[in-house]
């Protein structure tokens, strides 16, 4: 009989925790041996008769095949209780492990909800959540009505709420996109947003390290320059004279200042910061010449630190700062949060440094209607606005900082994927947020009932003259 058996490895045999994997393997083995219809009672009488003629001892062999692929304790139990009937053996395993499956569901869900999202180990934390969610999904695969999509959405919302603070702005963008697309957030989409944020952060960190290394080299160069200036003061240095370039100097002849025309007109400065005499406006401009973002209105700042340093404008003049801080602006489709911004009270325009936003593979598209879009590497719109007079002006909903509580806006965002609960139930679902107001256009419409029609219908003169339908 041994030549007819196909025995699994010891680790793959049925035990208290491997029922789902064991069923998958045994279905393939039973199909290979032509026993699957026998153990599941899915054979027709004609198929049973034909198979019995081809193999007279198929029932005994099927039962033995099931027994040897279980651990000894379970194999003997089901083999005796089924009275060596393979179909009964298969049914008993299903009944025995159904409560175990529910316990596994609870175990995986507890593992997910007990995971601590740590800022420094966010990749490992999300990997654990994704792995346990995958296990949880597989436990629902056999159900007729699968709640795995609802479970996925609930876990995604839990991750968004528990995410560390530095990811909050990114999560707000994710929720905003879900609201526009009228769908609930999924765990896969949430992880994709977190992964892209980490890639941008790591790239920015690498650029910062390069800048620090360049700054160190510059300091060393400044020391060398000081030594060169000392030699120049002592007269021990090759010099150029007006109209003549000394070939012993380190600069090229084309770069020699003594050979350049000093009387030519300087190029006009195109920067928006050349003058601060005009009345400041609330316009927000993307400026490629600004080394950092600068604003003229203190109400744009969510946090602020006074500072009395000076900055140099494009025309060479200097002006005192009022302070530095963080600016958070509501755009048409997302929130823009800018750190280390400068407050310059008499600045003509609010300027956002384009270099602080542009990343590799980002691109700007100008449309025929004098508008522009700033797209990321996935062609998603990051910023948009109008293009005029060689300037990019942003389109914003309001030019004031979000100093008011954003809990009402968050309540509106969480209300739809949570199933449109009332404000009281929403507070119980999310106790960490103090919601005090909730407006939803869909909820009043859903509660409208039909009003009886008390009028009279017109009398038709011919068939199909009028059509009647209830509107709801």
Q: How many independent structural domains?
A: 5
CATH architecture of the largest domain: Beta Barrel
Find the count of extended strands (DSSP E, 2+ residues). Answer: 13
What would the CATH topology of the largest domain be?
A: Cathepsin D, subunit A, domain 1
Helices and strands, in order, run as HHHHHHHHHHEEEEEEEEHEEEEEHHH
- Main beta-sheet strand count, sense and barrel state: 6 strands, mixed
Report low-confidence residues grouped into runs of 5 or more.
Answer: 142-146, 262-275, 399-406
Based on CA atoms alone, the radius of gyration comes out at: 36 Å
**Oligomeric state of the chains present here:** single chain
Q: Please give the CATH class of the largest domain.
A: Mainly Beta
Number of helices: 14
* N- to C-terminal distance: 70 Å
Which characteristics define this entry?
single chain, alpha+beta, six-stranded mixed β-sheet, 14 helices, 13 strands, 472 residues
Account of the protein in words:
- This protein has helices spanning 19-32, 36-39, 45-54, 58-68, 72-81, 86-113, 122-139, 148-162, 168-181, 187-233, 354-357, 407-415, 423-429, 442-446, and strands at 284-287, 294-295, 301-306, 310-312, 318-320, 323-331, 335-343, 350-353, 363-366, 371-375, 381-388, 391-394, 396-398.
- With 472 residues, the protein is of the alpha+beta class.
- It folds into five domains: 2-100, no CATH class; 115-197, no CATH class; 229-259, no CATH class; 284-398, Cathepsin D, subunit A, domain 1; 407-439, no CATH class.
- The strands form three sheets. It has a six-stranded mixed sheet with strand order 8-1-12-11-10-9.
- α4 runs parallel beside α6 (86-113).
- Residues 208-238 are annotated as: Disordered.
- Residues 208-228 have a biased composition (Polar residues).
